[in-house]
Amino acid sequence: MTDLRVNNLSVPVEGCHLVKGASYTLRPGELIVLLGPNGAGKTSLLRASLGLIRTDGGTAELGDQQSRKLSSLQRAKRVSYLPQTRPLAWPNRVRDVVTLGRFAFGTALGRLSEREEQAVMQAMEACDIQHLADRQTNTLSGGELARVHLARAFAAETPLLIADEPVAGLDPRHQFRVMDLFKDYVRRGGGVLVVLHDIALAARYADRMIWMQSGEIVADGTPQETLTEQRLEEIYGIRAEVNGLDVRFSGVS
Ligand SMILES: Nc1ncnc2c1ncn2[C@@H]1O[C@H](COP(=O)(O)OP(=O)(O)OP(=O)(O)O)[C@@H](O)[C@H]1O
Question: Is residue 184 part of a domain?
């Protein structure tokens, strides 16, 4: 079973720490939303968990191996990572960008097996971009391009999927649609960890919420356990009324 186990992880930078002693586990069959204000250390935690940046304490394991010891191909077979900024080296056809998601499995553009073709088509359909298949990526709107990147991540069909603000820039319908896709992925046995800034959306979809502040995980539990008026006040400095999973914001405190 592939899970991501992070224990007491710290990320140093210039004499201080971007992440301090963070511990959590991402297991197949659950959707975790990672929350926290700008600069709290969410991206740094994700990158450190995947072994992509230097750490100076703690461990991060993906399945049976330490993340930092995995080759990029080994890592790409276990987890799809959708970073916050998604540079494309050069404009390309949408279908080809989505096909790159199969790269770790030895897929070469133009030589797709039926199985590979199916994975790419399904991912494009799920992300509502099949009509854009032959378009060049530099002609797409921001939201369309975000869905292309998502489709690339889905096409990989990895056991785990980690996405940093995957719904930023999407209209409300596509935000729900993308979150529904993550839920389906989890129902089929995958594990998903996403960063969201929309607390109401997070409450609606998360099995667990991990809250970060100043480089530390300050809470980890179900929305029912961790989403409280006091927490929103402490972490974000905002006033809100919380009734179960329903959140009504009334301003900054
Ligand atoms: N290489 C670096 N050198 C110095 N500071 C850095 C470096 N990388 C990140 N930081 C700082 O560390 C803090 C945490 O950054 P990080 O991107 O992890 O936050 P975040 O919670 O993902 O924020 P956001 O919600 O704005 O995306 C920020 O203040 C950022 O400026």
Answer: yes
In this structure, what CATH number is given to the domain that contains residue 75? 3.40.50.300
CA of 37, closest atom in ligand 1: 25
pLDDT 10s digits, 202-231:
999 999 999 999 999 999 999 999 999 999
ipTM score of complex:
0.97
Verify whether ligand 1 is closer than 6 Å to residue 41 (CB atom): yes
* String of DSSP letters for the chain: ---EEEEEEEEEETTEEEEEEEEEEE-TT-EEEEE--TTSSHHHHHHHHTT-S--SEEEEEETTEEGGGS-HHHHHHHEEEE-SS---SS--BHHHHHHGGGGGGT-BTTB--HHHHHHHHHHHHHTT-GGGTTSBGGGS-HHHHHHHHHHHHHHT--SEEEEESTTTT--HHHHHHHHHHHHHHHHTT-EEEEE-S-HHHHHHH-SEEEEEETTEEEEEE-HHHH--HHHHHHHH-EEEEEETTEEEEEEE-
In-domain check, residue 25: yes
Considering its fold, how many domains does the chain have in total? 1
Domain that holds residue 50: 4-86+158-252
User: Which pLDDT score, from 0 to 100, does residue 169 have?
Assistant: 85
Measured in Å, residue 8 CA sits from the centre of ligand 1 at: 19
